[in-house]
C-alpha cells in the first residue's frame, strides 16, 4: 500500500463530500431548532393545562387536549427528522415522546447531541440552535 507524499492531496483516496456534509449540517440545524421549539411548546402546554385545570373550565379542556396532540405530533416529526440526520434510532426516541417527563429529557438529549455535532463542525449555536441559512 502506497502512502502519498507529505503535503500533497491524494488523488485516488476517497474524499469527504463537503456539499453532502453541509446539507447534513443544515438538516441538523433546522431539526434542532424544531426540537427546541418542541421543548417550549411542551412547557407552554403544561402551564396551560395547569391553568385550565385550576380554573375548572371543561370547555377549554378540549382546546388544551387539541394543543397537546398538536405538540405531540410536531415532537414526533421533529424527533424523527433529527434522529435520522444524526444517524440515531428514530424508533427509540419516538417511543420516548409518549412518556411525559421523559420526553422532555429525550428532547434535551437530542438537542445536546445536535449542538455537539454542530460545534464540532465549527458552527456557532445559540439559544434556539444554529441558523440553518448560515451554514
TrEMBL record:
The keyword Transmembrane helix applies. The chain crosses the membrane at residues 34-52, 59-80, 92-110. Keywords: Membrane, Transmembrane, Transmembrane helix. It comes from the Bacteria. This is Uncharacterized protein. It comes from Fimbriimonas ginsengisoli Gsoil 348.
Amino acid at each position: 500500500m502506497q502512502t502519498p507524499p507529505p503535503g500533497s492531496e491524494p488523488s485516488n483516496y476517497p474524499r469527504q463530500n463537503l456539499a453532502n456534509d453541509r446539507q447534513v449540517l443544515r438538516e441538523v440545524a433546522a431539526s434542532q431548532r424544531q426540537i427546541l421549539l418542541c421543548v417550549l411548546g411542551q412547557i407552554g402546554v403544561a402551564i396551560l393545562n395547569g391553568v385550565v385545570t385550576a380554573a375548572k373550565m371543561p370547555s377549554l379542556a378540549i382546546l388544551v387536549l387539541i394543543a397537546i396532540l398538536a405538540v405531540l405530533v410536531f415532537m414526533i416529526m421533529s424527533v424523527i427528522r433529527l434522529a435520522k440526520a444524526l444517524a440515531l434510532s428514530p424508533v427509540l426516541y419516538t417511543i420516548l415522546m409518549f412518556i411525559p417527563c421523559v420526553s422532555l429529557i429525550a428532547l434535551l438529549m437530542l438537542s445536546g447531541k445536535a449542538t455537539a455535532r454542530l460545534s464540532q463542525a465549527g458552527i456557532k449555536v445559540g439559544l434556539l440552535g444554529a441558523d440553518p441559512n448560515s451554514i
